[in-house]
Design brief:
heterodimer; A: alpha/beta; Rossmann fold; 2 domains; six-stranded mixed β-sheet; 10 strands; B: alpha/beta; eleven-stranded mixed β-sheet; ten-stranded mixed β-sheet
């Protein structure tokens, strides 16, 4: 469903991704591990279309369509979801109205009518409960003054609401304590199905103990140097990257 | 093909830019005693009103246009303007809506202000002012039953001369400054509101100002009096056709709150702002002032300023009554070549008076947006308090934002708190929203609406949604 071919990406004239190749099939969970500065987050931002991440050459296809020619919002509407490592604050925008607006943007692109307020509230309650999110968090401003854990849970809530086909998680486990990690991982596991693929970017084994990956890739200097199954993650955890 | 597209785009940006094809009757161009006498005669005014106008005009001869605003204003030839324009054959205001010219009803319908009572917004009474005359006022009888007077000021001058005489010019003196004095000489129509003692006005009162005729100035005059223990919430809306010329709107609005009374005054100003090259648009030079005359009284100004080529207004409060409160909540948006110089004056005269200023300026394109404010504590203003917060948001890199807060303090027991911020919509915020499926304009509008939320939520419910949309529309084309 996702094919990355010979991808070269520069950021501020510095080459970060070098001839990257990666194929992700439907329903697969891929973990990307690697030391700091190896280009893990760059792959996430490039796929999502962040400005200033310049694709010099290469190709990316998502569900058979050219991804790189699309605007960031079109990529989202086409099913790509990036859970941010550092979710952004939107002061003055209440979380509930923001969530409703992004849900409606996706409904609109599917030519559906905007969601009814009552129905939305019902869905929001249901999905918040899964993540142990208290409802009063939704009357606060998006991510503003949220704790690290609340921000990450809010990202997972959004991925649940938007029903994406490809989820990229950029260090979703950082900033979560053990309990929050478990709740979050449980919620993510519920989102796993045959149609949906995941890219999980992480430094640590602990998230992968909850969400078992089908493949583990090791990044170094902007490309994949080793691919294996989940045992590779354990090995790295014990031996390090070198 | 190109042209069609462009027109469509402009049309969408300012959807109130149409002209009503209705014959108008104007008095000759120019500013002189004869013109003033003619206006007064058209309005069937008593002698004292004419005298008052003429005395203002005499003063005007020795006054000049104020120059201190941070705006580039083309010189206005005051002799080359029409000072009065009304739909033709409009001798007397129609007694009922059935007698109103269908073209006028249609105009207001198009503006989203249906005047037929079965269709109107429940709980909102409307006075519709078209160029220099009020063409219809809804719910008048219903309000009359509880003693609330809501009518065009021209009618109040005839029917309630004792109230008008007592209060007109009592807050904005005839001699105040050039535009205020000009207005006093040539004012045409506006609304008059009187809320009797102890009455909480059960509906929102609103006036909708429409400029239609070309080369015509609109000189609105509004007077609102809240008697002891009463309450009223009032809202004004404004639009005008798209024209290449600059048109002048110079209004005077006076509010008087007696003991324990409260007036909430909201404005959604959406005058034609000019095109993307800065051609045309309304010059909005407005004097708005409220007097908290009685103890425990309260006046609150809320304004959403999105239109006009130049906005120049400082809705102010004179806090004379002990324990009185003044508030100013403002969102001013400028795009393209628009210029806004707006803010407030809070004059603390009485003991324990309080004021609160929340100003949100948003500049985009090549526009200029200035907050100018004065907080003044007089000697007797013991324990007076002010809180001021001025936030500016810049969209793009070619616009300007200025904050000029002045304070004068002659009272040693008073306190002023001031906070100011300037921020830019960050690329990170835009990208975050876009990653969740919002396009660039939707993302920007969400962020900007968040920035103004504190002010938008002060608007009456019926208008808050409309105002949010307006905020988004005003910034269209400024992304990227």
């Amino acid at each position: 469903m996702l094919e990355i071919k010979n991808l070269n990406v520069t950021v501020e004239e510095k080459q970060i991704l070098k001839n990257l190749n990666l194929n992700i099939g439907k329903g697969e969970v891929h973990a990307i591990m690697g030391p700091n500065g190896s280009g893990k987050s760059t792959i996430a931002h490039t796929l999502a279309g962040k400005p200033n991440y310049n694709v010099e050459s290469g190709e990316v296809n998502l569900n058979g369509e050219d991804l790189l020619s699309k605007d960031p919002y079109e990529r989202s509407l086409n099913g790509l979801f990036l859970a941010f490592q550092y979710p952004i604050e939107l002061p003055g925008v209440t979380n509930a109205s923001y969530l409703k607006q992004i849900v409606n943007a996706h409904r609109k692109s599917r030519k559906e009518t905007p969601i009814d307020a009552g129905e939305f509230l019902k869905i929001l309650k249901e999905k918040s409960k899964l993540l142990d999110i208290p409802m009063d968090m939704h009357s606060r401003f998006v991510n503003t003054g949220f704790s690290g854990g609340e921000k990450k849970k809010n990202e997972v809530l959004q991925m649940d609401l938007l029903d994406p086909s490809l989820i990229i998680m950029d260090e979703t486990d950082s900033g979560l304590d053990v309990d929050a990690l478990k709740t979050t991982a449980d919620a993510i596991n519920k989102l796993r199905n045959d149609e949906r693929s995941f890219i999980i970017i992480t430094h640590y084994l602990r998230l992968l103990e909850y969400i078992e990956p089908d493949y583990v890739h090791v990044f170094q200097n902007g490309s994949v140097i080793e691919t294996g199954d989940k045992t590779l993650a354990s090995r790295i955890d014990q031996e390090g990257y070198s | 093909m190109n042209k069609v597209n462009k027109d469509n785009f402009t049309q969408e940006k300012y959807k109130y830019g149409f002209v009503t094809e209705i014959e108008s009757e104007k008095i000759p161009k120019g500013l002189n005693e004869d013109v003033i006498k003619l206006i007064s005669k058209k309005k069937n005014e008593p002698e004292w009103m004419l005298e008052w106008r003429l005395s203002a005009f005499k003063r005007l001869e020795n006054m000049s246009v104020p120059k201190w605003a941070k705006a580039e204003i083309d010189e206005i030839d005051f002799q080359d303007l029409y000072y009065y324009s009304s739909p033709k054959d409009f001798k007397e205001k129609p007694k009922s809506l059935d007698e109103v010219d269908p073209k006028l009803l249609e105009t207001y319908e198009k503006l989203g202000i249906p005047l037929k009572e079965q269709k109107v917004l429940a709980g909102v009474a409307v006075d519709a002012v078209f160029d220099s005359v009020s063409v219809a006022t809804t719910f008048k009888e219903k309000l009359n039953e509880i003693g609330v007077i809501f009518c065009p000021i021209s009618e109040a001058i005839q029917k309630h001369p004792e109230l008008v005489k007592k209060y007109i010019g009592s807050v904005i003196p005839v001699t105040d400054h050039f535009y205020a004095t000009l207005n006093s000489a040539v004012f045409s129509d506006g609304s008059f509101v009187y809320i009797p003692k102890g009455v909480k006005c059960p509906m929102e009162l609103s006036t909708y100002f429409r400029i239609n005729a070309s080369e015509t100035g609109q000189f609105e005059r509004t007077l609102i009096i809240a008697d002891e223990g009463s309450y009223v919430s009032y809202l004004e809306g404004c639009t005008a056709p798209m024209r290449d010329e600059n048109q002048l709107h110079a209004a005077n609005v006076e509010l008087v709150a007696l003991d324990d009374a409260e007036i909430k005054y909201s404005t959604v100003q959406n005058w034609y702002p000019g095109d993307e090259n800065g051609k045309g648009g309304i010059y909005n030079f407005v004097t708005k002032r409220g007097l908290c005359k009685g103890k425990n009284s309260k006046i609150s100004w809320t304004q959403i300023e999105t239109g006009s080529a130049i906005t120049w207004k400082y809705p102010s409060c004179i806090l004379r009554g002990d324990n009185s409160t003044g508030e100013f909540y403002s969102v001013a948006i400028t795009n393209n070549y628009q210029q806004a110089d707006t803010g407030t004056k809070m004059i603390h005269l009485g003991k324990n008076t309080k004021s609160r200023i929340i100003s949100k300026g948003i500049s985009a394109g090549k526009s200029s947006n200035t907050y100018r404010g004065l907080v003044s504590f007089h000697k007797k203003a013991k324990n007076a308090k002010n809180f001021t917060q001025c936030d500016s948001l810049l969209v793009g890199s070619e616009c300007k934002a200025n904050t000029i807060p002045l304070t004068e303090n002659s009272s040693n027991s008073s306190s002023i708190e001031h906070e100011a911020t300037t921020s830019k919509i960050s690329d990170e915020q835009l990208f975050y929203c876009m990653q969740r499926g919002l396009d660039a304009e939707e993302a920007q509008s969400l962020i900007v609406n968040g920035f103004c939320k504190e002010v938008l939520q002060k608007l009456p419910m019926e208008f808050a949604v409309e105002a949010q949309k307006l905020v988004s529309i005003s910034l269209e084309g400024s992304v990227g």
